[in-house]
Amino acid sequence: MGHEQESTDSGSKSESHDSSLGENRRGFFAQTAAILIGGVVTVVPFLAGLYVFLDPLRKRNQAKSGEEPGGFDSEGYIKVGSIDSLPADGSPAIFRIVSDDVDAWTVSGNQPIGKVYIRKADDDEIVAFNASCPHAGCDVDYRPSEREFLCPCHNSDFSIDGGRSADSPSARDLDQLPTTVKNDSEIWVKFQNFRTGTAEQIPTV
Amino acid sequence: MNSILNWLDDRTGYKALLHETLYERVPGGARWRYVWGSTLVFAFFVQAVTGFFLWAAYSPNAQGAWESVHHIQYDLQGGWLLRGLHHFMAQAMVVLLALHLMQVVIDGAYRAPREINFWIGLILMQIVLGLSLTGYLLPWDQKGYWATKVATNIMGITPGIGPQLQRLVIGGADYGHHTLTRFFAIHAGLLPALLIGFVALHIYVFRRHGITAHKPDSGEDTTFWPDQVLRDAVACLAVLAVVIFLVYLPTFQGHAPGAHLSAPADPAEQYSAARPEWYFLFLFQLLKYFPGETEVIGSHVLPGGVILFMFLMPFVGRWKLGHVFNVLFLLIVMLGAIGLTAAAVIEDRGKPEFIAAQEEAERVAERTHQLVEEYGITTAGAVDLVRNDPMLHGPKVFAKHCAVCHSYDGTDGTGKELAEKPTAPDLGNFGSREWMRSLLVNFQEHFKNVEEGFAEGEMGEWSTDNREVMEDESNAESVKALVEFIVAQAERKDLPETDPELVTLGRDIFEFAELANGEFSLSCVDCHNMHAVGEEEPISEDLHAPLLTGYGSAKWIRQMIIDPDTHYGETNLMPALGEKMTEQEMDLLVKWMMGDYLQPDKKDESDNAE
Q1: Does residue A16 carry a pLDDT above 60?
Q2: Where are the alpha helices (DSSP H) in B472-536?
Q3: Residues A37-91: pLDDT tens digits?
Q4: Does residue A104 sit at the B interface (CB-CB below 8 Å)?
Q5: What value of ipTM does the predicted structure carry?
Q6: Which of B19, B354, B365, B419 has a CA between 20 and 30 Å from the CA of residue A22?
Q7: Average confidence score pLDDT of chain B
Q8: Which residues contact B288 (CB under 8 A, 6 or more apart)?
Q9: A112 and B CB contact within 8 Å
Q10: Chain B contact for A57, CB < 8 A?
């Protein structure tokens, strides 16, 4: 049998013609079985590893159902500051969102998890923008002289009401966040992050 | 297709390589006994693959290693399987290595012209053992921490270079971040790279000399592919099946499947269950026979001598009878190792302290898991949760400071016997309804341990005088109410909730001493100060007997420990312990006595209640 296989040219399954049918079959069985079993034992550790590696792609309920992360109310609003701290001229002030930060196994309370710009619009409406640029996620700066927001990374610029300029690389305007006022002067913002680079707002959860 | 392959072959010559790889001649036919080398390559392959994926989730630092392994084990889906495969395949690899080595020696495959390959094999063995040793520390749990600490301390007694070597390996004087970063770099970087290099050499030299055929004339020659490959594949499948079985084995004993993870490493917590992995137990046992300065004989000279001799085997094997000597030598070493391992296991099984230590380790491990699931891990790491858990550490504080006089359910709090007969009441049920009832109805019995006539004092007399009234059937509800009222002052959350109606009833009995049928000789407020919970004005004040305001509450217990005179006045016999305890100890003790901690068994209920 040995010399028969040595005579095959490329290690393929073709057997020499003068071997008996029985040996052919046996060789075929051994080859198939070797490939199958060898395949299984090779694949198992990869599958086990890949399954764990792909864990971030599986959406799962966070550890405690029904509980909001620190500071958030049941509708997803969080207190950011006082109306009194907003400039009267309608220019924006920057606020940190402080809540629980959950990073894999580490849970830390009172951590900054994001930034928002808040301004008082002409009709005394409270307007909030997520400070993260919708283009690629850098934090935008506010330039008082121009009364506009400018992203330091790719020069996306946005007017004071969040609208992007015509030559802005960003695909959408600054992400405006719903606000509400509680207890006369507390500003509460429905803080959310969105995917970057899309024309539509798609929340990242 | 063919033309592409030919193009590729023309540039690389892969066909010849493939042909050489697959059509290695196997004289005398394929055999099951040739599979061991292949299973070892397979085992390493599994370790490399699973190791890479574990690497992608592991964090080598003192506040992150245990935490990330816990995260792999319990939070990442399938993580327990991945870690289990890696853990048990490592053990399988050591077994396969021993089998492979024995076969090589018994079959005489180490002799000329294969000496060099035998030496390469011995080097590979050291690399694999090094991987085992370094890997054992990486979870940074109590088990790995203490076992590895012993190993590196042994390294420290190496003549001449010991202390420097030890410092170098652990990255400083003490275990910490750099111990992990170094062990991890060695475990996942250096040793695997060396292993790959030496395995490649090993296989290359092996192919050069061919297989050491067993009875080459007994059958027709064959080639590696497919007959031997099939046998190798089946053997690898068997190894994998055994490993997967081992991963699932704990479920048969009622545990979660996968490799065990003990509590996070804590240099301040004694870990009496420390043992190396089972395949190092014989070395561990060997050390017991070399007392004092002779330790180095057991730790370095003997094992080093055995390895050195094995390197010389090819030369010894040249002589007549040399081969027989080599085989005998290896068998004796193997039997010796098995014997020592057995001695270690038998000794441990016969030691109640060790069994208790193992159970305690298991209890702490499970508790830690529960704490992590409930509270999450802060940046201080999981060990912080353990150190500040009243359930785990309250008893230790009790044993240290209180068990000099008090018992707790008949023990020192941690379950150990008291050194001396207690001279103060057993605090096992302190503040409970049973405690209060026993104190009222049978004061003398309740405080019988206390010396200097404490039990016969005023309260003892009151208890004796009023026992008949309290034990009267028709007053059962009244006594229950009085007990309920006093227990309510502690505002404990671990006891069954107090009944407001009974508390109100009990409050009146406390003040006016009128029971359903009859009355007390003296009212409680004739002697005791009391400012009931939730009331604006004190019921009584400026009296001489022990303070009952907030009796059994955290504040009351704390004050009792700091300055018992303020509660008991002249009748006090308890020493003030405030200055002997740290604030943390005080906190742990009080919370533990109050039952103010995450209850171990009620977790599911409380989850539902939320």
Answers
A1: no
A2: 476-488, 500-512
A3: 999 999 999 999 999 999 998 865 454 445 677 888 888 899 999 999 999 888 9
A4: yes
A5: 0.85
A6: B19
A7: 90
A8: none
A9: no
A10: no
Q: Is A162 within 8 Å of A129 (Cβ atoms)?
A: yes
Q: Residue ranges of chain B with pLDDT lower than 70?
A: 452, 601-610
The CA-CA-CA angle for residues B125, B128, B131, to 5°, reads: 150
How many CB pairs below 8 Å do chains A and B form together? 121
What value, to the nearest 5°, has the Cα angle with vertex B203 and ends B201 and B204? 60
More confident residue, B128 or A17: B128
DSSP-assigned letters across all residues of A75-97? TSEEEEEEGGGS-TTS--EEEEE
**8 Å CB contact of B233 and A105:** no
In Å, how far is A189's CA from the nearest CA of chain B?
27
Within chain B, all domains assigned CATH 1.20.810.10 are found at: 24-274+350-354
**pLDDT band at A20; cut points 50, 70, 90:** low
| Mean pLDDT calculated for residue range A121-134 | 93
Q: Is B348 exposed, middle or buried (0-12, 13-18, 19+ CB in 10 A)?
A: middle
Q: What is the pLDDT of residue A21?
A: 57
Q: Assign domain B24-274+350-354 one CATH number from 1.10.730.10, 3.60.15.10, 1.20.810.10, 1.10.10.10.
A: 1.20.810.10
Q: Does residue A13 register a pLDDT over 60?
A: no
- CB contact under 8 Å between B226 and A44, yes or no, is no
Report the sign of the C-alpha dihedral through residues B551, B552, B555, B556, in that order: positive
Separation CA B592–CA B401 (nearest Å): 14
Residue among A35, A52, A53, A99 with most chain B CBs within 10 A, to mutate: A52
B230 and chain A in contact, CB less than 8 A? yes
Nearest to B187 by CA among B222, B230, B135: B135
Nearest-CA neighbor of B141 among B67, B73, B77, B74? B67
Amino acid at B531: H
Residue B88: φ, ψ to 5°: -80, -30
Q: Which of B87, B72, B139, B83 is nearest to B383 (CA)?
A: B139
User: What does the pLDDT look like over B527-550, one tens digit per residue?
Assistant: 888 988 888 888 888 887 788 888
